[in-house]
Structures are given as C-alpha cells and as structure tokens.
Amino acid sequence: MTLTQAEPMHAAPRDRRATARQAHMWLGLLLIGVCAVSLESGASGVSLLGLITGSAEDETLARIILWEVRLPRLAMGALVGAALAVSGAVMQGLFRNPLADPGIVGVSAGAGLGAITAIVLGGLLPPAIHSLIGIYTVPLAAFLGGWASVLLLYGVATRGGRTSVATMLLAGIALGALAGAVSGLLVYAANDQQLRDLTFWGLGSLAGATWSKLATAAPIILLALLAATALGRGLNGLALGEATALHLGIPVQRTKTLAILTVAGATGAAVAVSGGIGFVGIVVPHLLRLATGPDHGPLLINSALLGASLLLGADMIARLVLAPAELPIGIVTAVLGAPVFLWILLRRRGMVDL
Amino acid sequence: MTLRAERIDVTLDRAPVVAGVDFSAHPGQVTAIVGPNGSGKTTLLRALTGEIAASGRITLAGIEVGPRRAAALAARRGVLPQATRLAFPFTVAEVVRLGHLAGPHAHRPDIPAAALARVGLRDKAGCAYQELSGGEQQRAQLARVLAQVWEPRGPHGANWLFLDEPVSNLDIGQQLAVMRLAQGFARGGGGVVAVMHDLNLTAMVADRVALLQEGRMAARGRPAEVFTSATLSRAYHCDLRVSTPPPDSVPYLLPQAADAREQTAAYDREEQ
To answer: What distance in Å separates the CA atoms of residue A320 and residue A71, rounded to the nearest whole number?
Structure first.
C-alpha cells in the first residue's frame, strides 16, 4: 500500500554510513601525518629524521629536544584536541543543539575556576587528602568545576528534554562571568609562586607540556574518550527527543548522566593542562556533520581524530609563525574557529528558535 | 498479550489531567481514543506508553510499562508522537534506520526501504528530514515506527503501534491510507492504539473506541455503541446528529449548524 500515486524509482539514498566509516581511516592517516610533521618541525631545527640517519649535529641535544619537549607536547596536543572535539560533539548531542560548546557556554570557564581554586587553595587541603590525590588535584578540581557547570547549565536551559538556545547561551554568559569573577578574586589571594603557576596555566598553551603533566590528564581524557564511544546510540536517540529515545529502548537517564560526566571529564582535564582553548569543540563536529552526517556513532570517533589533528596543526602554526617566539594556541584556534561559528549562526538564522 | 491499565491518574503541574481511567486494548483490534480538546487523550496515551508517570497499574503483555523496561518494550512496541523535531540534519532514511536498529529485526537490511515504500516516501529516502513538509515528516516518523516493530506478531506474541493523531497533517487520501495501514497491522494480529480527532474516520476504522471527557472515561465500546447523538453531543458540548447509513451502517455524524448558531447566540447572551 502506498500513499502517493507516482513513485519515480530514482536516487538510491546516498549512504553516508560508508563515508563516515571510511573517514575513520582517512582521518587516522591525517593524524599520523600531522604527528610526523609536528615532530619534525620546531624552533630548534632538530629533526627526528636527522637523529635516525645520524646526521644530527648534537645527538644528545636532539634526543632531549625530541623526547622531553616535542613528544610530550605532541601527545598532549593530540589528547587535548581529541578531548575538546569530543566534548563539543557530546554536548551538542546532549543539548540537542549544534551551538553547544564547552568554551562558548561557560563549561571551560567553570573548569578553569576549579583549576584556579586548586592552584591557590590546594595547600589548604588536609595533608591526607593531598597526599592521596597529589598531582591529580588540579585536573580533578577542573573536572568538578566542569561537572558543576554542565549540571547547572542543563538544569537552567533544559526543560522536559528541550533546550532553549537563548537560555543556554545566556546562562553560559552568566556562568562564564561568574567563574571569571571568582577566578579574579582568587588571583588576588594568590602568593608569588601560585601567581607564577597561574600565569603559566592561563596562557592557554601546550608549551608547558611535560610527561608528568601529561600523566595527570591522560587517564581522565582517555577514560572520557572511551565513555564517549558508548554514547553514539543514546545521543542518536536523544536527537529524536527524550520521549522517542525512551520508546526506542534507550536508557535516557543513564545516557544523559554519562554524557555529562564525559563532557566534564574531557573538558576538565583538557583545561587543567592547557588552559582555555576555544572553538575546537564547535568547528570539528560541525565540519564532520556536513561531510559524513550526524550519526553520533562514527561522529564521535571522527571528532576525536580530527580534533587531535586540528589542534596539532594549530600548535604548529602557533610555534612557527613568530619563531622562535610563540603565539598562545588559543589565539590560533579562535582566529580559525570564530568565523566558522559565525558562519554556522548565519546558516541557521531564521531556523534557530531563540 | 493485552494492554491493561487500571485506575490511571495523571497529574501534570499539580492539575489532574487523567483521573481514574480504566483502559484496555487487545491485539487484532484498532482501539481509538477520542474526546474533545483538553480531555486528556494525549496524556492518557503518554501514560500508556510509560512516557509520563501515572499512578495505577499499566501492563503490556504482562510487562510493567515504565522507563525501567524500556528495552523490553522497544522490542514489541513502536510509538508515534504528534510531531518530532530533529536536532540534527538526518536524512529520512537515517531517521527510519534509527527506529529499525531499535527493534528486533535490526539484522534485516531491507526493512527501512520497505517501510518508507509503505508510507509512500520511497523517493524521499535521501532527503533531509528537516526539509520535508509537515505531512511528509509525519509519514517518515510512521515509517520509523513501522521499521521498529515491522511484523504485527513477533516471537513473543503481538506487537503494538501507539499512534498520537497519526493523520493530523495529512490530506484525505493519505489519511485513509495510513488508517488502512493501521487496520492491516491489527488484522495481522498486532495491536493498535490511536488518539484520533476525526470521529467519522474513527467510526470507519476503529474496532473499539474510548471516549474521554475532562480526564475521565465517558464511554467505551464499539463505535456504534459509543457514537450516539446523545453521548457525543454531551461530550463535545454541541449538537451532533449520528446516522448509520447503509450499506455498512458505519456511524456517520454531522454537526447541526442551526443549533450551533443558536448556541453561539446563547453564549453571547451569557457573556452580556
């Protein structure tokens, strides 16, 4: 039984699933390529190739630069990029809105407040707790700050599973302002050593990457990325609305809780080690949705791969444009990302119900 | 096998919307829920699908209906809401596949295309859902629901369709086609529960009717039993005349325009 009289047999639906899966491979290759180029390039002119072929002038120095400077920075860039892009994709699925991004709606600011609090007031923790969480104090505090922010935002902007875009963006502004103000107060309370830590942290840069710093963030980020791979089906269901997701057999409450924890973990850990790097979370998922469709299964994996490549690329620009000085990477991502954000807004103008 | 609901109360924003309703539906039948605007039709359907909390006991084939049994229910029941707005630019085929993957026939790749063909949207499979007209979106969602349950009967017995005003955006030909599809599903042994607005269409396709009035069950039974001039005129607060013309004696109702004019005049007098 059919409802229409004429049914032309044209155009088998273009299947974006295959494209999205192929993209895993292409983006994986891209990431490997970017890693190789990134490892080769730097202010010192040291080259991995040179080290391997034995043509390096000072082998010890080359080894130190590669092993202690470029490699941890590379790993951190890849992890932070993946974390930010996946945070964006998960948050957009959770809020059912392609404009949701941890940087734009104040989650990064909340995580930053957590990090600053830990740096300035971490010394007041009872020694027992301090020795227990040790180096993880800052990332954990950032995670808690991010978590509180997402919960608050979700509570304010979402009602009955529907998010008001205007409320979300405005609540994000308020959240960002509040976090900024409290952070400012804490800076006043900081002593000299803490101020140095804060400045270093606040640069929003991968420049401070060390293996030990990486060790504090990597487990949280990897855990969050792993959790994200379990969210594909649930977020697809939520795209149809909470009620329909339920009727599709999706554990809605569990999906939402896991999504919030994932965003808080990935954003918190990324912010804790690299400060506020914006726009990766909005640009990457958006471009991928245009290319391979909105199915969250492949989207989340592709976001991690492209996010890592994008941030490493931005880091290379940041290192090389003014070499031997370097730009804060947040400036590079903002220059690349802000126009894309405006472009998304333009395309959706008239479709967004504010 | 049956859907049973006993003494259902639903309170939304502290106001009782459905009160003390007993409801049952059986496989092999189309059960329609009708009633005036605001009588609680959609609320009752949402309670019956476990979407909103209700006091009382609701079971579908012995399964307690509610969020905790979402997966078990999804294997044997599809739910069509009044309208669905999508957050992201999925194509029509992708929307249908979301339903298909949630059902027990996910291993049969032919179903999504067949479901779209059933609702007459085969040539729209590759289109963006958001660019479809309201009627096309409604049919695309129906295809998603069909792709989820697909067979009227599954390994555990009857499958179910819950439809909230499935023809509200459709022209008369499409309305008939969709209701025939629902009827066919019921004839195949499945259960269909549908909230309906058009009483004549309901009389034509429903096997059982539940008439709600201000959140309470005003009448239940076969259309010929429920659709009487007296019952309907009382429920809808206007003068309706029901006749049962041959050849099939399906109740057919006509609003009485003259009385409606009088009634309007009466309301005007009251307001003054």
So the answer is: 17
**Could you give the CA distance from residue B23 to residue B57 in angstroms, rounded to a whole number?**
10
Amino acid present at A225: L
Q: What is the largest CA-CA distance in chain A?
A: 79
Residue-by-residue DSSP string for A211-253:
HHHHHHHHHHHHHHHHHHHT-HHHHHHHHT-HHHHHHTT--HH
Residue B143 structure tokens: 């295809």
Nearest-Cα distance to chain A for B166, in Å, is 14
Window 111-130 of A, Cβ < 8 Å to B: none
d(CA B140, CA B178): 12
- Cα–Cα dist A102/A264, whole Å: 9
Q: B10: which strand partners?
A: B18
Check: CB of residue B218 under 8 Å from CB of residue B201: no
Check CB contact under 8 Å for A239 and B177. no
Facing B81 at nearest CB: one of A8, A12, A244: A244
* Contacting residues of B for A237, CB less than 8 Å apart: 98, 102
Q: Which two tokens stand for residue A178?
A: 């509040």
Which residue of B88, B105, B171, B180 to mutate against A (max A Cβ within 10 Å)?
B88
pLDDT of residue B30: 97
- pLDDT at residue A7 is higher than 50: no
CB B159 within 8 Å of CB B151 = yes
Q: Determine the distance in angstroms separating the CA of B73 from the nearest CA of chain A, rounded to an integer.
A: 7
Among left, alpha and beta (phi > 0; psi -120 to 50; other), residue B157 is: left
ipTM of this predicted complex?
0.89
* A99 contacts: CB under 8 Å, gap ≥ 6: A92, A165, A168, A169, A282, A344, A345, A348, A352
Which of A96, A248, A293 is nearest residue B74 as measured by Cβ atoms? A248
Element spanning A340, H or E: helix A329-348
* Distance in Å, alpha carbon of B272 to nearest chain A alpha carbon: 41
Q: Residue A161: is its pLDDT beyond 90?
A: no
User: Given this model, what pLDDT does residue B138 score?
Assistant: 95
CB contact under 8 A, B148 and A11: no
Peptide bond into B246 cis (omega under 30): no
Task: Provide the pLDDT for residue A89.
Answer: 96
Instruction: Check: CB of residue A265 under 8 Å from CB of residue A223.
Output: yes
Q: What is the DSSP letter of B91?
A: B
Q: Say yes or no: A237 contacts chain B, CB-CB below 8 A.
A: yes
**CB of A298 less than 8 A from some CB of B:** no
Q: Which two tokens stand for residue B141?
A: 């969602």
How far is Cα B171 from Cα A202, in angstroms, rounded to an integer? 61
Q: Residue A135 in contact with residue A69, Cβ under 8 Å?
A: no
Cα–Cα distance measured from residue B201 to residue B220, given in angstroms and rounded to the nearest whole number: 17
Please report the domains of chain A, with CATH numbers, ordered by start residue. Answer: 87-344 (1.10.3470.10)
| Single pTM value for the model | 0.87
Contacts of A13 in chain B (CB under 8 A): 91-93, 125-126
Please report the pLDDT score of residue B192 as a whole number: 97
Chain B positions touching A294 (Cβ under 8 A) are 88-90, 94
Order the strands of the B55-60 sheet from edge to edge. Answer: B15-25, B3-12, B55-60, B63-64
- Count of CB pairs separated by less than 8 Å, A with B: 117
- Architecture label for domain B3-223: 3-Layer(aba) Sandwich (3.40)
